[in-house]
Structures are given as structure tokens and as C-alpha cells.
Write a structure and sequence with these properties.
Length: about 350
């Protein structure tokens, strides 16, 4: 076996040879430690290593918005062209007929513009209500002081020049300055919106009873859903007006969308439990006919819709406010049905 000529015998090094020599000049990577006087010490900003760069703002997709805008512009152009042709044709028949039709067209355009303005204003107000509800829920979980002033200022601006402003200002004048934010929210829940809550509950009870009676005594079963939908839309418009929201078709549409989402997320089990307790709480349900039972179900559905609308339109959340309302409404519907039977 051949020996390796590159092999060398290991050399033992002493520990003193591993220490750097004091005669060796200091390089840029190494410098001796020196004592710094306290007067020359300076604060250095602490650098965080775990900071991550801010995410880039990705451009939002505006395809559906442009598509909807284009379709609306095309529809408006087509309707305008047809109206111009109609007015021109009526003017050829008789000038007075053309003038009358033109005036009616202008009135129709004005009403549509007014409805759109109300709807856009109501949609903005619904967004403000959602923001105030979120702030109120955060304050209900805190016991700090002074954080509720912004929400109180927003409530004052929201209900300014409305019938609810006087009650709100009266409640604020009687507010104790020693309350924390949670106590302020609880106090405003009980004293600032009493008139609106009472009017909204009466509205829900009235429309629920009317829907139940209409369905129970309607001879056309196929029109029951139309009757319930018509009464529910009227109720939503009135509840929005009670809480200071501008009425309009866009307001009703946005409120209806949020309402359907809340009813879907609430779950069928909760709705069945509340409706079942309302039915079992009354001893008169056993004597009702099948048609009256359908009317009672339609009335309870309208009541559930109205109570959810109150929850969405009310700027201060209060989960305990609507408890027991379904049972009282069910009793009122049963009494009205038995009285007319």
C-alpha cells in the first residue's frame, strides 16, 4: 500500500497562540473596546427586525362597475331616443298634445331624479349607521373615559334638523360626567331614542297584524306573497323614516339586502325557536283554522322582518330591546283573527 506524500504530522498549538496579539494593528473589522463617558452617550432609535414591508395596493377590478355604467348609459340613451320620437310624433299631430306630453316627461324625469337623490342619501346614511354601531359595540366592551365623545358628536350631526334631535339633546344634558364609555352607551340606549323605538315598535305591530289578517282572509292564495311583500316594503320605508334615514328605492334596496343577509346568518333554528315560543305562548292558537294559521305565520314573518330592520336602522345596538316582541305580536294577531272569525 502506497503512503501519501502530502500527509503531515499534526502540530499542537498552545492556548496563548489563539489570542490576538496586542501588537497587531486594528483593522476595520476589529477595534478594541473603550469606555465612553456618560455625558457623550446618545439615544439610538431602536430598529425592529420583524417589520415587514407594507403590502402593495393592488388595483381594484372595475370591470363590473364599468359594465353596469355602460348598460345604464345605453338604456338611458334608448329611453331618451324613444321619448324624443314620441314627443315629435305627438307634436306633428297637434302642438298642444306635444307640449302636454313634454311636460309630463319632464315631471317624470324630475320625480326619478328626486328618488335617486333620496336613495343615494339614504345609502350614505346606512353606511354611517353601520359605522356608529361598530363604534358603539367597541365602547360597550371598554371602561375608559373620553372615547365616546366622537360618537356623541356623530349622533348629534346625524339627527340634527330631525324630530329626534330634541330627545337626544335632552338626554345628553342629563348625562353624568363621571360615567365611563360603557355606562354612557348604556345610558344613551335607554334614554336617547325612546320616541323612535316606540314609534318603530308600533309600526311593526301594525303591519304584522295587517299582513296576518290580509293573508288569513284573502280569497286568492296566489296573491299572499305579493301582499306580504307589499306590506313589508311599506314597513321598511316607514322604519327608515322613523330613524332619520332618507326614504327611497335605493335605501329600501340596500336595507332589504342587509336584512336578508342578517336573516340568513341568524339561522333557521333561531327563527323557528322564536316563532315556536310565540305560537305556544298563546292559548288561542288551537282554535284557529288552517287559513288563519297561514295568516299567523305571515304576520310573524313580517314582525321578524320589522324587528331586524329596527336593528339595522338603529345607530346604537341594543340586543335586549326586541325581546318579547314576537310573543306580543302573535297574541295581537290571534286576537284580531278570532274577533273576525
Amino acid at each position: 500500500m502506497k503512503s501519501n506524500s502530502n500527509w503531515q504530522r499534526p502540530v499542537e498549538l498552545s492556548p496563548d497562540a489563539l489570542e490576538p496579539s496586542k501588537e497587531q494593528p486594528a483593522t476595520a473589522d476589529y477595534a478594541e473596546a473603550r469606555e465612553i463617558p456618560l455625558e457623550m452617550a446618545q439615544d439610538v432609535a431602536e430598529t425592529r427586525i420583524d417589520e415587514q414591508p407594507a403590502p402593495r395596493n393592488t388595483p381594484r377590478r372595475r370591470g363590473p362597475i364599468w359594465l353596469i355604467s355602460g348598460l345604464l348609459a345605453l338604456l338611458t340613451t334608448a329611453v331618451g331616443a324613444e321619448l324624443y320620437r314620441l314627443i315629435s310624433w305627438s307634436s306633428d299631430l297637434h302642438p298642444l298634445l306635444g307640449i302636454g306630453l313634454g311636460v309630463l316627461t319632464l315631471l317624470l324625469i324630475g320625480l326619478v331624479a328626486l328618488e335617486l337623490r333620496r336613495g343615494l342619501k339614504g345609502s350614505r346614511q346606512l353606511k354611517q349607521v353601520q359605522q356608529m354601531q361598530h363604534q358603539a359595540r367597541v365602547l360597550l366592551d371598554q371602561r375608559s373615559h373620553g372615547n365616546s365623545s366622537q360618537l356623541i358628536r356623530q349622533l348629534g350631526q346625524f339627527y340634527n334638523h330631525t324630530p329626534l334631535n330634541s330627545e337626544l339633546q335632552q338626554a345628553l344634558q342629563q348625562l353624568d360626567s363621571s360615567y365611563n364609555d360603557r355606562e354612557i352607551m348604556l345610558y344613551l340606549n335607554r334614554h336617547a331614542l325612546n320616541q323612535a323605538d316606540e314609534a318603530a315598535h308600533k309600526c311593526v305591530q301594525r303591519y304584522s297584524v295587517e299582513s296576518g289578517v290580509l293573508v288569513a282572509f284573502s280569497p286568492w292564495a296566489s296573491f299572499d306573497m305579493l301582499l306580504v311583500a307589499w306590506r313589508n316594503l311599506r314597513m321598511l320605508r316607514e322604519i327608515a323614516t322613523i330613524y332619520g334615514l332618507a326614504p327611497g328605492l335605493l335605501t329600501q334596496g340596500r336595507l332589504l339586502k342587509q336584512l336578508l343577509q342578517n336573516l340568513a346568518f341568524a339561522g333557521a333554528s333561531e327563527l323557528a325557536m322564536e316563532a315556536g315560543s310565540a305560537l305556544l305562548s298563546s292559548s288561542l292558537t288551537a282554535g284557529l283554522s288552517a287559513r288563519a294559521g297561514q295568516g299567523l305565520g305571515a304576520g310573524l314573518f313580517t314582525a321578524r322582518t320589522g324587528l331586524t330592520a329596527i336593528k339595522l336602522c338603529r345607530p346604537l345596538p341594543d340586543e335586549q330591546q326586541n325581546r318579547g316582541m314576537l310573543s306580543n305580536i302573535a297574541k295581537g294577531i290571534v286576537q284580531r283573527l278570532t274577533a273576525r272569525a
